[in-house]
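Checklist before submission:
- one chain only
- standard amino acids only
- sequence pasted in full

Submission:
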Amino acid sequence: MIADELFDLAPVIPVVVLDDADAAVPLARALLDGGLPAVEVTLRTPAALEAIALIAAEVPDAVVGAGTVVRPEDAERSAAAGARFLVSPGCTERLRAAMLATRLPFLPGAATGSEAIALLEDGVTAMKFFPAEPAGGTAYLKALAGPLPRARFCPTGGVTPRNAAEYLALDNVGCVGGTWLTPADAVRAGDWDRIRALAAEAAALRPA
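Returned file contents:
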């Protein structure tokens, strides 16, 4: 799989924060049953790498990735845990080299035209647009489409069920990332039916 193919898995990639690795497998199964095969587990908690390893081992049909990759060692450890793709909120030369060295598809973060151009110069065409709403939202992405037609984005940060379709309608948006699919209270309660329903709604999203 190459990075651009991540955009074809589903209209939404769930962005997940897990405090308890034991929730990882039922959560991934609920998302998969709802029609969302990709799941980005953010490296924001001590449980993240174990969660990635459990999903990789026990839910093989899920495409589990690591998010909030901000250090070279994050990329290495995520790959060792079984991540199948990497996502970073921004990008430096060292971080890009580390992600590239894993041979995994990755979505490096870009929030400005200059950052996107720097990635394009390195042959990277699939990017994360973060933080999407604070950085200018759909209007900013529309403005980038003309001068940077090769760049495609996964906007994340402020994307909700109310505006996701507007992002998906843009030619330079391949998918969106969202945290709304895995509410913390539902994860704590093990309410997998609720998460499955939210996933099904997201899987059915179409461009506005």
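Reviewer check: The radius of gyration is 16 Å.
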